[in-house]
Each structure stands twice: as structure tokens, then as C-alpha cells.
Amino acid sequence: xxxxxxxxxxxxxxxxxxxxxxxxxxxxxxxxxxxxxxxxxxxxxxxxxxxxxxxxxxxxxxxxxxxxxxxxxxxxxxxxxxxxxxxxxxxxxxxxxxxxxxxxxxxxxxxxxxxxxxxxxxxxxxxxxxxxxxxxxxxxxxxxxxxxxxxxxxxxxxxxxxxxxxxxxxxxxxxxxxxxxxxxxxxxxxxxxxxxxxxxxxxxxxxxxxxxxxxxxxxxxxxxxxxxxxxxxxxxxxxxxxxxxxxxxxxxxxxxxxxxxxxxx
Length: 265
Fold this sequence. Notes:
13 strands; two-stranded parallel sheet; globular; alpha/beta; 9 helices; 265 residues
């Protein structure tokens, strides 16, 4: 995933802080060779919980490494935040005072694992709208009094003057359900990293799916897939999953479209 990750994010990300959990598959060498990457070890602040340890990293790493006026994005390697013109869109959002950009989440799904030197969504362009991926992982901390992720970054607690775009335009594309054989192998490997607390609380329960359960889950998303980038699919109109930010005490502003943007409805 790393080459796809960097090809997607490099055009608009200035610096990465990546925490590595003892990779032995060549990932560390790829990370160390990238000029924008700051490498850190993934330290387990909670010896019995990988999930709690990662939560601690997500809530502290950006405090140490970035400024209050920076845009911060906290994805996993398989999460690609997408806007057709992300750089100019973030500039326009900043001018309008936006400091939190909710995303519309998709579980991307493909029968084959993508290959080659292109962008991953050029090969894997179908996905199922899925609200657990509609995360608050793109923000500017400037006027926020506090910002804290819960486990998995599916929920964040914010206080302060929170300003969001009235129309969500950024998608969170989660590239995990690609090639059932590869997926099952990855799930089994991820399960080995969980601690006793994670297992007790059923964090990462999906890593323990049987082959049959995983296939059913894969098929569920596959049946619900849409062509994300087709003219027929308008995310703000057609993504009917719950939106966690609705009803929150956030200010909404209309971010006018730039001359390059076709918009997402």
C-alpha cells in the first residue's frame, strides 16, 4: 500500500510522521527513503492494548510535530482522503475559516489487488458507502479548544469554535476489501498484534472472522458497491449513511467552488 499512499498524498502533504510497529517486509526501508517522512517507533503506552496505544499516538503526535495553522490529516495507510483538487480546496476552506472537514466514507472493494505505478482508485474505483469511514481526520487545530480521537478514529470529541463546510466534498476511501485471499491473510496477521485488553473489549473483532464470515462480509460490501467517480453518483446526494456531525453544535459555512471544481453536489 505504501507506494499508492505516497502517490496519492505527496501532491498536497508536506510532512509525514509515521509510526512503525517493527516492520520486516521492506516497509521500513521504503519509509526511510522518503524525503518527507519522519520515522518513529510505535511505542505501546498500554502494554496490553495496541488499540489504546495507537489512540494515544493519534491524540499526541500531531501536537508535537505540527503547528496550529497546519492542516492535519490522521489516516491509516489504507485510507485515502480524496478531493479532485485537494490543495486548492483546503486553501479555500482556510479562507472561509473552516477548521474541520467531515468526510464521506466508502469501503472500497475489488476482486483483484491493484498493481502498477498509478493511483489506486484508478484501478479500484468501486466502493460501498459506509459511515464508520466518515471520519473526522482532517482538521486545523487553531481555534479548537480540544480535539481527541476515540478508538479507531471513528469518533472525535471537539470543543471550541468548530467550523465545517455546509456541503461535504471530501471522501475517505478505505482500500482494504481487495482480493479476498489477500484480505484474509492480512486479517490473520493483524490479529497477532492485538493485546489482551483489545481481545477482551472486542476491538479488532473482525480480524478473527472465520473464512466464511469474512467472505460474507466481503460479499455484503460488494453487493452494495457503487461507481464512486461516475457521473451518476453524487456523493453528497447519494451517500445515505448516517452523518455523525449532523445535529452537532458546529457552524457551517458555504465554501464557494473554485474555477477548477466540478463539485460533488
